[in-house]
Automatic annotation (TrEMBL):
<feature type="transmembrane region" description="Helical">
    <location>
        <begin position="188"/>
        <end position="209"/>
    </location>
</feature>
<dbReference type="InterPro" id="IPR011701">
    <property type="entry name" value="MFS"/>
</dbReference>
<dbReference type="Pfam" id="PF00501">
    <property type="entry name" value="AMP-binding"/>
</dbReference>
<feature type="transmembrane region" description="Helical">
    <location>
        <begin position="109"/>
        <end position="128"/>
    </location>
</feature>
<dbReference type="InterPro" id="IPR020845">
    <property type="entry name" value="AMP-binding_CS"/>
</dbReference>
<protein>
    <submittedName>
        <fullName>Bifunctional protein Aas</fullName>
    </submittedName>
</protein>
<keyword id="KW-0472">Membrane</keyword>
<dbReference type="InterPro" id="IPR002123">
    <property type="entry name" value="Plipid/glycerol_acylTrfase"/>
</dbReference>
<feature type="transmembrane region" description="Helical">
    <location>
        <begin position="241"/>
        <end position="261"/>
    </location>
</feature>
<dbReference type="InterPro" id="IPR036259">
    <property type="entry name" value="MFS_trans_sf"/>
</dbReference>
<dbReference type="InterPro" id="IPR042099">
    <property type="entry name" value="ANL_N_sf"/>
</dbReference>
<dbReference type="InterPro" id="IPR000873">
    <property type="entry name" value="AMP-dep_synth/lig_dom"/>
</dbReference>
<dbReference type="Pfam" id="PF07690">
    <property type="entry name" value="MFS_1"/>
</dbReference>
<feature type="transmembrane region" description="Helical">
    <location>
        <begin position="342"/>
        <end position="367"/>
    </location>
</feature>
<dbReference type="GO" id="GO:0016405">
    <property type="term" value="F:CoA-ligase activity"/>
</dbReference>
<feature type="transmembrane region" description="Helical">
    <location>
        <begin position="281"/>
        <end position="299"/>
    </location>
</feature>
<feature type="transmembrane region" description="Helical">
    <location>
        <begin position="55"/>
        <end position="78"/>
    </location>
</feature>
Length: 1171
């Protein structure tokens, strides 16, 4: 026996909320009430004639014996006929039996009462196999354990209700059975009303059960019930696992019967309680069983978890021994002693019941699930026979222990615990894997909040290879305890062979692997994994071969395909999410010895759809990567929006500097929050953003701009940072597109960059003059004293949804008119988290903020990454003011620069080592980073500038090379020259054929597509344009790329920067790089871009390459000759008259080439030439 898979063909079955299950549940509940109500109506009356033990044993025996006598007919009925019909028939019989019972009460016949108890037992015995046998036919298999748990709870609660009801009814009737005579019908009315009502409602509820087909309509009623019972038991015995489970369940009923009988004596004799005080003791035992039953179903999840049973058995042992100790130590003459004993007894009986429920429900579920459909009635009847044989034995044993051996009730509890010890040990010996697995499950689910998706994608039977990402030391444990089947993990040999884990690894069949041991040892491990799969087992490998230090998916090793070779086994991709930051991940640059960020750390696991016969390891890696995106979508609702993270960061940095700027302004967390709260009040007072959702901001990166953005966000407005490098026409186009009525700006700024705008301008200098003492006092109080959760509700921040728009950023217009990109809270929050995870930002980092907020990297990285997490920032409005930038870097100890290669080249030429003395990370984007610039920067400053990739539409981060020192990488490669790094966590990338859209394999060049939480909501007011670039969640970047086997992305060109000449695609960027290398010299101090390539229409070839350049240091003929020697196709060579000299290459304010203006220059010039 072990954990059982329960993913079957369940199309005709339903959930716990289906009409059939609810009807069965209610039928069981009402029937159990009636059974116990009548039984306990008879037993107290019998006590007036018989002694207590005899009355109790007689009542139990009369109810139990029918389960033994009618096991064969019960099995026959359950298999031969529809179980629904049998259930309805039993309910009709119950009404007739109740009528007979009331007649016996009226006659005052004790023997008649016990006859009715016997008939009720017979009715229940016939009902039992059909009841439990119908469960697998009504419920989907993954609901079976929970259904059993709830049904068990219904049985237990109903038994308790029936016990109390029976006692009450016996008192109401009040017959003197020493002189039994017929009594008036008036006294019988309460009992008649209750018993007939319960029976009638039970019949009605049974009608709600859907029609169920007979399991074996050809079965013949056996002539010899004894022989048939023997055959049923023999069939049960043939299945060792089912027989053991049935014995375990029978042992539970034996304990339950003995405990129930013993409680009455324990309370009245040992604790000296009156009869009314004994009721709660039994009630708590019953409640405990009910809670344990439900808990067992909940803990089992969507499978049958047998590992719960041994832990339940240990609970029975413990609580029974404690009950003995209480009874043995109590002093009946001391009221205080009995009071304490009573309270502790109540607690122990509750625990005893809970443990019993945990013990039994997995066993019953296992019997139902594993018994064959055709003979399920026979198997259940045989199991039932065992149960009630031991129940009957319990009644006899109790009489012997109490009346013959004169044992104290507390001693009987001790014997009960002692008897359970070998059972617990035996189950553990049988199920060590399941027991340990469940114990670990319990611990992990206590520490972690585990969510699992796609468990049904695991094959029900047969071998399969699970391939997962690797984030923490406990990943293998998490997978083993969440899988519905046992998994054999492939793990590093040195860890597996540690003394404290070796025996557990052997127990769970862990396959050791050690690549450095040599090819022979490696092949042996892989072959062992393949053999396990061929034998029908699940095997899991972490294909990266190591834990991730950055959260990025690393290269998948080729051993995966070696394992699959020669098998037809599918691959099941698996993704573990949210573990970054847990104490076993590499957050903070170490795997252990750090405090958890929260209690019950979240963990999400998704099992993907099986991949049949994968073509390559890249296909498997892609599937795992895609699951990361799907899991992010699953947990979107739990993402903390940036403005709420801002509040928490300000509160944790009250007195620590967070931002500073070129003007000398500095702000701590407290000052940032106070400023944001004050300006929010001022904006509201001025009716800014009251009639429009979007508000314009025209400010350079600065402390004031940061406060303005956060204030608008707190006010639930969308802050639109306008691009002040655009023409007035384009700026007003952006304003009109957003429906902006107010633009927040500064007089000082507009003096430097005058722009005529068709909206009302609000100057921050004027607003600042209107700050009142009340504003300061209120915001001071909120900043320092109001709890964060209350502050969020005051400002309604808890109502902000992840999918709400946070900002609109207009594209630079390098290839056309600016388009408004709508970025949500979800986009920015996840992008910030990805950046922190990749580069391990902490409170000691200081970012240089020279990219404006209308630039997506500037907005995400130098605004929200700084104010919503730990790093600091220093801002300067002019990215090419190298002298001031150098001074700011030296003053504030800048450690991180995020910029473009164009700007970086200026810093290389003019900044000193002293100014960059604390610099350790440089990430560039927007354009390709030349290797020569990389080399020169490293030689001067000792920092290797790396390249990342992103677009405004992608929030913007997609991928990044991670400097090795940033993540203390060992064998993991974080940077690869010539690439833009690997995809950030939870972002998926792939390349497709630009025309057929067919997915391409590793190392193949195609159109780059991106999917993930960073994909924009869409273009503002342009749904058609949005639909063109986002298909099935994949954003088409327009860039050509190839993804290497190790996951690094190489951008090979932009779709808009190719020309189709004579049917061939000619890359502008490649020609630019070659020409730049030809015309530039190592000693060249030039900082500006020297040349750029564009194209114009050509009647004969379709397009014509044009080289737009500043004055060159070499003649054109010499340049063309050198270019011709570069081993490129002749089609790529521009003609001599295709060189256009200009004074300045058009550049956008973000440092990128202005491709639109560049093309227009060429068109204007050559149209004049040909005119």
């Amino acid at each position: 026996m072990n954990t059982v898979t329960v993913t079957e063909a369940d199309d005709h079955r339903g959930s716990l909320r289906t009409q059939s299950y609810l009807g069965l549940w209610l039928t069981q509940f009402l029937g159990t009430i009636n059974d116990n109500a009548f039984r306990w109506l008879a037993v107290p009356i019998a006590k007036m004639v018989y002694d207590e033990s005899t009355a109790l044993s007689l009542g139990l025996a009369c109810f139990t014996i029918p389960y033994l006598l009618f096991a064969t007919p019960a099995a026959y009925l359950a298999d031969r006929y529809s179980k629904r019909s049998v259930i309805i028939g039993c309910k009709i019989a119950e009404i007739l039996i109740m009528a007979l019972g009331l007649f016996c009460i009226w006659l005052g016949s004790i023997s008649g009462l016990f006859l009715v108890v016997f008939l009720m037992g017979m009715q229940s015995a016939l009902f039992y196999p059909s009841k439990f046998g119908s469960l697998p036919e009504i419920l989907k298999s993954d609901q079976l354990s929970k259904g059993n748990g709830l049904l068990g709870m219904a049985t237990i609660v109903a038994a308790a209700v029936g016990f109390v009801l029976g006692m009450e009814l016996s008192e109401k009737i009040g017959v003197d059975y020493e002189n039994p005579v017929p009594i008036s019908s008036l006294k019988i009315m309460p009992a008649a009303l209750v018993l007939f009502t319960m029976a009638g409602l039970g019949l009605i509820s049974s009608l709600f059960i859907s029609k169920l087909p007979p399991a074996d309509p050809e079965r013949v009623l056996p002539n010899n019930p004894v022989k048939d019972t023997y055959q049923s038991l023999n069939q049960l015995f043939k299945s060792k696992a089912l027989f053991r489970a049935a014995l375990g369940s029978a042992f539970f009923w034996f304990l339950a019967a003995l405990a129930q009988l013993n409680i009455d004596a324990y309370g009245t004799i040992q604790l000296q309680l009156d009869q009314t005080a004994v009721g709660p003791l039994l009630a708590l035992l019953v409640i405990g069983v009910g809670v344990g039953s439900v808990l067992a179903g909940y803990w089992s999840g969507d499978h049958v978890e047998l590992g719960i049973s041994p832990l339940g058995a240990l609970g029975i042992v413990f609580s029974s021994i404690v009950l003995y100790s209480i009874g043995a130590l109590v002093d009946p003459s001391n009221a205080l002693s009995t009071s304490y004993a009573y309270r502790w007894s109540c607690l122990c009986l509750l625990v005893l019941g809970l443990a019993a429920g945990l013990f039994n429900i997995p066993l019953e579920s296992y019997i139902q699930h594993r018994s064959p459909d055709k003979s399920r009635g026979r198997i259940l009847a045989a199991a039932n026979f065992l149960c009630f044989t031991l129940t009957l034995f319990a009644s006899g044993l109790f009489w012997v222990l109490r009346e013959q051996l004169k044992l104290e009730p507390s001693t009987i509890f001790l014997l009960l615990g002692i008897a359970t010890m070998p059972v617990a040990i035996y189950i553990f010996v049988l199920l060590p894997n399941a027991t340990i697995r469940f114990a670990v499950w319990l611990v992990t689910h206590t520490i972690y909040k585990v969510r699992v998706w796609g468990r049904g994608n695991l094959p029900e039977r047969g071998g399969a290879l699970l391939v997962a990402n690797h984030v923490t030391w406990l990943d293998g444990v998490f997978l083993m305890v969440t899988s519905s089947r046992p998994i054999r993990m492939i793990a590093y040999e040195d860890y597996v062979n540690k003394p404290w884990i070796k025996w557990v690894a052997k127990l769970f069949g862990v396959i050791p692997i050690k690549p450095e041991a040599g090819p022979k040892a490696l092949i042996t491990s892989l072959q062992q994994a393949r053999q396990a799969i061929e034998q029908g087992e699940l095997v899991c490998i972490f294909a990266e071969g190591q834990l991730t230090r950055t959260g990025q998916l690393q290269q998948f090793q080729g051993g995966v395909m070696h394992i699959l070779k020669g098998t037809d086994a599918p691959v099941v991709p698996v993704y573990l999410d949210e573990l970054w930051g847990s104490i076993f991940s590499y957050r903070g640059g170490r795997f252990l010895w750090k405090l958890p960020l929260r209690i019950r750390y979240p963990l999400s696991i998704k099992f993907g759809k099986p991949i049949e016969k994968p073509d390559s390891v890249h296909q498997i890696r892609q599937a795992v990567q895609d699951l990361g995106v799907e899991l992010m979508e699953e947990r979107k609702s739990r993402i903390m929006v940036p403005i709420r993270a801002f509040l928490r960061q300000c509160r944790s940095s009250l007195f620590r500097r967070k931002v500073a700027d070129y003007s000398g302004n500095e702000a701590t967390g407290a000052k940032l929050l106070i400023g944001s709260l004050i300006f929010k009040r001022l904006f509201r007072r001025k009716n800014i953003g009251m009639t429009e959702n979007m508000v314009g901001v025209l400010l350079p990166p600065s402390v004031a701009a940061a406060v303005t953005n956060t204030a608008l966000t707190m006010k639930h407005n969308v802050a639109v940072n306008l691009n002040y490098t655009l023409s007035e026409k384009d700026v007003n186009h952006c304003i009109e597109d957003c429906g902006i009525k107010h633009v927040l700006t500064s007089r000082r700024f507009l003096e430097k960059r005058p722009i005529e705008m068709n909206v009302e301008l609000i100057f921050l200098e004027d607003l600042k003059e209107e700050i009142s003492l009340a504003d300061k006092a209120i915001t001071f109080f909120q900043t320092y004293l109001v709890p964060i959760f209350l502050l969020e509700r005051i400002h309604g921040l808890h109502k902000i949804e992840p999918d709400d728009i946070l900002t609109v950023i207009f594209t630079s217009g390098s290839t056309g008119n600016p388009k408004g990109v709508m970025l949500t809270n979800y986009n920015i929050a996840t992008n910030v988290d990805a950046a922190i995870q990749l580069l391990h930002f902490d409170k000691n980092d200081v970012l240089l903020g020279v990219l404006p907020y209308f630039h997506s990297f500037g907005y995400m990285a130098t605004l929200w990454l700084v104010i919503a997490s730990e790093p600091q920032a220093v801002y300067h409005f002019n990215p090419i003011d190298v002298n001031m930038i150098g001074k700011l870097c030296e003053k504030y100890g800048v450690s991180v620069i995020i910029t473009t290669p164009t700007f970086l080249k200026r810093y290389l030429k003019r900044c000193t080592k002293e100014q960059f003395c604390r610099l350790d990370t440089v990430v560039t984007g927007a354009e390709k980073l030349p290797v020569e610039l990389q080399t020169e920067f490293y030689e001067k400053f000792g920092v290797l500038a790396t390249e990342g990739y992103g677009t405004t539409e992608l929030s913007p981060l997609v991928s990044c090379n991670v400097p090795d020192h940033r993540s203390k990488l060992t064998s993991e490669v974080g940077t690869k020259i010539g690439t833009v790094g690997r995809a950030a966590p939870n972002i998926s990338v792939k390349v497709v054929h630009p025309e057929t859209r067919e997915d391409l394999d590793a190392e193949q060049e195609g159109l780059l597509l991106v999917k993930g939480p960073n994909v924009m909501k869409g273009y503002l007011n342009q749904p058609e344009k949005t639909a063109e670039v986002i298909r099935d969640g994949w954003y088409e970047t327009g860039d050509f790329a190839r993804i290497h086997q190790d996951g690094f992305i190489e951008i090979t060109g932009r779709q808009s920067r190719f020309s189709k000449i004579a049917g061939e695609m000619v890359p502008h960027i490649k020609i630019e790089q070659l020409l730049t290398n030809i015309v530039e010299s190592p000693d060249d101090e030039e900082e500006e871009i020297v040349l750029a390539v564009t194209s114009i229409p050509d009647e004969s070839k379709g397009e014509r390459i044009i080289v737009v350049h500043r004055k060159l240091n070499k003649p054109t003929d010499e340049v063309l000759k050198s270019l011709g020697n570069c081993d490129i196709p002749n089609l790529w060579l521009p003609s001599r008259d295709s060189f256009l000299e200009v004074d300045q290459i058009p550049i956008l304010g973000t440092g990128k080439l202005d491709l639109r203006s560049l093309k227009q220059l060429a068109i204007d010039h050559y149209s004049r030439v040909t005119a």
